[in-house]
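Hi team,

Filling in the usual template for the complex we talked about on Friday. All components are listed, including any nucleic acid strands or ligand strings, so the model treats them as one assembly.

SUBMITTER: L.P.
PURPOSE: interface mapping
COMPONENTS: two
RESIDUES: 441
SEQUENCES:
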Amino acid sequence: MKRTSFIALSATAGLLPAAQAFAGDGAGGLPQMDVATFPSQLFWLGVSFVLVYAVMANVSLPRVRETLDGRRSRKDGHLDQAGRTNEEAEKVKKAYEKSLAEAQKKAAAAMAAAARDAGAKAAQEQSAFAESARKRLADAERNIAKAKTEALGSMASIATDIAADIARKVANMDVSAADAKLAVETAMKEGEA
Amino acid sequence: MSDNILEQFAIKPIVPLHLGSLDISFTQASAFMLFGAALTITLMTLSVRRKALIPGRWQNLSEILYESIFGLTKEYLNDEAWKYFPFVFTVFMIVLMGNVLGLIPFAYTYTSQIIVTGALAALIVGFATLVGFIRHGLHFFSLFFPKGTPLVMAPFIIPVEIISYLSRPVSLAIRLCLNMVMGHMLMRLIGGFCVTMIALGIGLKLFTAVTFSVNTLLMALECLVALIQAHVFAVLTCVYLKDGVELH
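RESULT (copied from the run log):
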């Protein structure tokens, strides 16, 4: 209860000035309604307004506008330039890609041609080599066969002589060279078979 | 400190001046008007003297004020915006300075004077009407009889339109003045309440603190009101000028 009365008392104390004001304390209520101050207020308001208007219209606002326009045009200029540079870069990139593709195509063609040439050459050389090898092999075989025949021929004459000698010495038979040769040839044929 | 919450609105002469029989004394209200004007001129002129590409904080403030009010003017007046922009901007800055400077403790709020807001409102509506007459001649009166209204309605519509047109400066003046007066009265009242409680030693400490916090929040609200009312003034200036320029 004490607290409530405190608050009520405080509120009354605070409201006192308000009541006093509205009751009017001899000065005549609202100072706003004091007509005597009007000429002075109008005069100085007029002075301030004209002053502010003159400076704003002729100096300040054009200056701010210039600043803003300058910034805007500069920004637009930069954007334009950036756009142009970007376009150029794009062009260069396209040209580069085109030339790169062309070079790749050329290189591929050259590679294919080289591969074809090399293949053809290799095949040619291989076949030439195979031919010569076959020829030399055939020659060698022929030589071997000839040597073999020669060797066998000389061997047969030696064997005929030896066979005639053996027959004469062992069996005291005089075997004619022709018989001996016939016998050796027969024996050699049997040996081969 | 006086206990009268209306005391703060009283005009106190500093240098008594007379122009003929008129009392044009330089008062504390005049001082704040000139200070506001000087501040506006200084801010808007010096901060952009270098026309920096990357604005500093003062130049940035000037540019924000410029762009917000220009955007507003442009929104209502389109291509005509350039012609009326300095006028709208001056009105806005005069009101803004009055509202904002008035929030500084012990400063005088010249926009709390009905004669000041009334003069500004009369200037705005008068200027808009003048523009209307210059651009449209007597055709300006078609503003009071909107197109497509049946002729029978004329006796009703025309008086209503005329009254609504004439009430423009009144509502403009009273809205701003009362916003300022009420805000300052309330702050003064609650502030005085705190002081009284402490002086009398009857205030509960917690209760005083709460009251003081309320006043702090009220101060923040008043800052917002100061900006909003200046903006509203500028918006309505544009609206009325638009009527003068375009006739609906």
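MY TAKE: The helical segments of chain B are 28-46, 57-77, 81-101, 114-136, 154-200, 205-246. Chain B touches chain A through 69 residues (CB under 8 Å).

Thanks, L.
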